[in-house]
Structures are given as C-alpha cells and as structure tokens.
Amino acid sequence: MYAPLDHVMMRVSDLDESLDWYTTHLNYEEKGRWEADTFTNVYLGPEDAHEAGAVLELTSNHDSEPEEVGDAWGHIAVRVPEGELQERYDELMDGGVEDYRDPESCGNRYAFVKDPDGHEIEIVKRDYGPLYSLDHTMIRVEDADEALGFWTRKFEYEHVGRWESDTFANYFMTPADAPQESMALELTYNYDGREYTMGDAWGHLAVQVEDLDEAWDQLMTREADDHRDPAACDDLYAFTFDNEGHEIELLESHVTND
Which domain holds residue 140? Predict the structure, then answer.
C-alpha cells in the first residue's frame, strides 16, 4: 500500500482570523473549500506547492469552538531555505506574529511560532520544497515500539530518520520512495512515561491511496481499527485510528481538487 500524507486537519475558533493569519504570514493560498450545514473545511498551501506536497486543512464548526489543544498532537513544521531561518523568523516577528521560541533558543536549528488558536508551527531549514511548505507533522506516542509497528505494518511506512536525546526520541516515517517534498510523520516518545490527551483542536491526518476499498480491506486484514468504513462515508473516504487514538483519514485523491 502506497499511502503518502495528503493533509493534516486542525480545528480553529475563528476561520476568518485563521485564514488571514496563514495567508498573511505564510503566504498560503486557498486550495479548496467544503461548506456543510454544520462546518466549513478550507484547504491551504503555498501557491507554488509541489505536486507531492501536503496541504493544511482548517475546520470551523459553526456551532462550537475547539476547547482544548491537547498534547497528543504536537505541531506542524514548515520549510525555509538553509541560511534563512533567522531572517524568516525576524520577518514573522515584524509582521506581528507572537515571539514563542526563537532560533537562538533552539540552537539555531529551528524555531517555533503559534497560530491564533495556539497550534504550534515549527520552522525548519530545508534545501527543498517551496517556502513554508509542510515538512512534517508531529504526534506524541506513549509506546514507541507499538507506534513504529503500527505505521510499518498497517501503512508500510519506513523509518527514515531519528533523533535521540537523554529524555526523548523522535522517529520520522514516510512511505517507501516518497518524494522529499512530501510531508513526513514525526513520532515523539518521551522517556518519562507521561500520558497524553487528544483535545479537540487537532483533528486528523489524511493519507492518499490509489483504491479506497482495496486499501481499507488491507487495513482490516492487518487488524486496523474499523472506525468509519467507506460505505459509512458515502464511499468518498474512510477513517481509522492508530494504536493510541490519533485519527487517520483515507481518501483516493486530493480533496482540494474536487
């Protein structure tokens, strides 16, 4: 099964404010929109997005606001060219973005900002991909062995990188042969045995598959969670959970092209 990451979804309290923030500060443009009776989904990304690049989905529920960011979801990461980390961070500060974790405090390897709802955005140095394109999305896991096994067995992802420190480890996962411009998944495992809460401000990860029914059947054979099968979703998409409850959507094509 080849299932590259298609998008990452997070919920926002004020859609107009969030759209203004992402279009102003990251120069994102609207790639697509879905209006339903009770919610609105908007898909965003760089104007010159790579064909393999993932997009950001902002979801606004019409009758409620997200109540808790939670800590089982960590952050999204966006790319800036090598040598431009400080320049781009200063540019964001000059544009009115709140100072959260500057490059110096992060060893000049990366930096962090927050959007209006408190979603963390890491700025990473990369020599590929359009400016501010999605590099990876990070989720925290309570059992690294199970999480690595889940993504390896269920979705045939490969372990392509790691960072180990005294207190935590990061593991990066992508499908085999995925272009470097695609979005990777970062699994973060803290050694202190802490537990995490999902909250409701983060939604799900989405993977793109060639044949929805065939991919779903493979997942069921591999004993994935039968959360919402294709028939329950009008054969447009489906949902499963990973071993720790992070929600994963399957869809056949980029929803932004519908």
Answer: 5-257
